[in-house]
Amino acid sequence: MSDRKTAFVLAGGGSFGAVQVGMLRELVKNGIVPDFVVGSSVGAINGAYFAGAPTPEGVAQLEAIWGALHRRDVFPFTWRSLAGLLARRDHLVDPRGLRALLERRLSYRNLEDAVISVHVVATDVLDGSTVRLSSGPAADAVLASCAIPAAFPPVHIGGRRLMDGGVASNTPISVAVELGAEHVIVLPTGFACTLESPPRGAIASALHAINLVVARQLVMDLERYRGQAEIVTVPPLCPLSWSPYDFSHAGELIEQTAAQTRRWLERRGLDQYRVPGALLPHSHAGEGETCEESD
Question: Residue 61: how many CA atoms within 13 Å on its side-chain side?
Fold first, then answer.
């Protein structure tokens, strides 16, 4: 790496967060380790784990976590969920499972104790502002960043009620720039671009909609901040036909993305500053066509 201050920015995207693990594997294998990490939503989970062990072994451990992850670990629905809905509770999902996973697997307790600096992005429930969490209990910060409205309850930190970072800034390039990053490497998750019908279920539909918004927001942010830092975007996997609510394909997502990222690095992708075609509105009229091939 050069003397420039480098940041990894990890976007949200539900189960598509597995894509980022494949990207991290190849970046680290090529000696690319940032000065700090900024993460939002599922990107906060991956960023927090990576910041605790920014090595090939650490990425392998993160990969193992994703490989063993089931939807019920993140979104456990029980009779209490239905009871809570009927009782007009403000959330459907008990966050204790996700909290236990974070506390059991993270290698440090407080954000400031990570090997490299990590910054977690959440949203203030009342005014919608972006909130950067850089110290304090890591599990609390990540839970706040992942607190999808109506699915998870807000998390109270520093007298504020916080929810999913994706509401205010799902790909927080602005935070990385404010922290002094001169070189920003964005790790997006992409979106399902070959669905034949809308996802079924409230949370599946919400996650799909959020991913579409994220992709559009990221394209605008790449344009907005390109004069303030060198910003490179690792191409997300494309085509994608699964739901970001489906955690059963993590291994495939990781392997396919790792192979694609390896080819991108070999083609000197880190020297390219264009927006990946997979993030732009597109179709797959040609059978077998990928955005990687058509870029």
Answer: 15
Phi, psi of 85 (to 5 degrees): -65, -45
Report how far residue 1's alpha carbon sits from residue 202's, in angstroms, rounded to the nearest whole number. Answer: 43
pLDDT by residue (tens digit) across 23-59? 999 999 999 999 999 999 999 999 999 999 999 999 9
For residue 130, the surrounding DSSP H or E stretch is strand 130-133
How many CB atoms sit inside 10 A of residue 256's CB?
Answer: 16
Query: What string of DSSP letters covers 76-102?
Result: ---HHHHHHHHTT-SBSS-THHHHHHH
Peptide bond into 239 cis (omega under 30): yes
Report d(CA 50, CA 24) in Å as an integer. Answer: 8
What SS3 class is residue 20? Answer: helix
Cβ distance 155 to 164 under 8 Å? Answer: no
How much is the pTM?
Answer: 0.88
**Burial label, 45 (beta-carbon count in 10 A; 0-12, 13-18, 19+):** buried
Q: Is 175 helix (H, G, I), strand (E, B) or coil?
A: helix
- Alpha-carbon distance of 148 to 154, in angstroms, equals 8
How confident is the model over 215-226, as pLDDT tens digits? 778 888 888 998
How far apart, in whole angstroms, are the C-alpha atoms of residue 295 and residue 276?
A: 7
Residue entry with tokens 């599946």: 204
Per residue in 247-272, pLDDT (tens digit) is 889 999 999 999 999 999 999 999 99
